[in-house]
Amino acid sequence: MAGVVQSVQALASSLAALPPEFVRPEHERPRATTFLGASPLQIPVVDMSLPDAGCRMVEAATEWGIFQAVNHGVPADAVVELQRVGQEFFALPQEEKQRYAMDPASGKTEGYGSTVQRSPGDKKMWSDFLFHNVSPPAAVNHGFWPDKPRGYRQANEAYCGHMRRLTREVLERLSAGLGLEEGAMAEAFGGGEDGLVLMQKVNFYPPCPQPELALGFAPHTDLCALTVLVANGVPGLQVSKDGLWCDVEHVPGALIVNVGDQIEILSNGRYRAALHRATVSKEKTRMSWPVFVHPRREYIVAPHPRLVAGEIPAKYDYKAKTFEDYTYCKINKLPQ
Ligand SMILES: O=C(O)CCC(=O)C(=O)O
Ligand SMILES: [Fe+2]
Predict the structure, then answer these.
(1) Peptide bond into 235 cis (omega under 30)
(2) Model pLDDT, residue 1
(3) Which of 31, 79, 106, 331 has the most beta carbons within 10 angstroms of its beta carbon?
(4) Of 281, 285, 274, 180, nearest in space to 226 by CA
(5) Where are the domains of the chain?
(6) For a substitution probing ligand 1, which of 224, 237, 292, 293 has the most ligand atoms within 8 Å of its CB?
(7) Whose alpha carbon is nearest atom 3 of ligand 1?
């Protein structure tokens, strides 16, 4: 672990105006581009306790690539505890957080950090993060898990157990929706029990002096298979639908599930990865806790063979690229 993180949190406390490296060009600014119709489009809500939950999920993954899951079986206190330890971590003195600094030169994504400007025209995002693997045990490096606040590890391990169960359920339903066996997606991505890698991230978006000019997170699709996210109740997540940016109106207690690149590709485009971004606020700190579900590193990025048989051609061809290489290219903005 090396390097000093230039955190937005430290910067935010001393600013009246937004520094130029955060100022977005006109066509990316949130106010000018957010859809404000009389009846704003809303992402689907899926009640996971109902018999039609599978159909609803499949519909949502086809139309939107994102949905809010309610009655998902993750106990509220597990979420509250995860949020508490994340909030307390970001409230620690800067030097304490620096102990976990991510080293951008290492090529690894784990650790505490903030976006770096790769070129002068590249805009920074108004957010900091903490990022580390949580499952399976062989993928976990506790050196990136803060030892303060107390209970950090227990909270993350407990939440991760729920995420594993929920992920399995969503993957089963989405597999069935493609006419595959329930276990087909997990098998393809993970090659069996414990093959899937879960990463926990904490995003921290401090109050921003000029939120109308900045973005907390630039538009992107997640490079993983699936993301399950919970936020702290402050609005900010937006999803692009038919060319319009729509605010996600978070249903209290819901978990936001979104399809990443790997499910879009594996499904040969029948499911779509959600294009999303995050806006920031002038007065409030926003936080979010996404869990990214990754295939194993050596997974070959390609449509499922059963979905390209016969008349249907493969819509994606990454020339036998591994997930590890796909990740490297996407993070470094290289052509795939
Ligand atoms: O904070 C959010 O709602 C979105 C964060 C996000 O998209 C990400 O970390 O990939
Ligand atoms: Fe994302």
Answers:
(1) no
(2) 46
(3) 79
(4) 274
(5) 19-332
(6) 237
(7) 237
pLDDT tens, residue by residue, 126-167: 999 999 999 999 999 999 999 999 999 999 999 999 999 999
Nearest-atom number in ligand 1 for the CA of 292 is: 10
pTM of the model: 0.96
* Residue to probe by mutation, ligand 1, list 276, 281, 285, most atoms within 8 Å of CB: 276
- Domain 19-332 CATH superfamily: B-lactam Antibiotic, Isopenicillin N Synthase; Chain (2.60.120.330)
**Of how many residues is the chain composed?**
336
**Residues ≥6 apart with Cβ < 8 Å to 152:** 85, 89, 145, 146
Question: Where do runs of H (alpha helix) occur along 116-236?
Answer: 152-177, 184-190
Distances (CA, A) of 285 to 87, 88, 171, 203, 231: 10, 13, 33, 10, 11
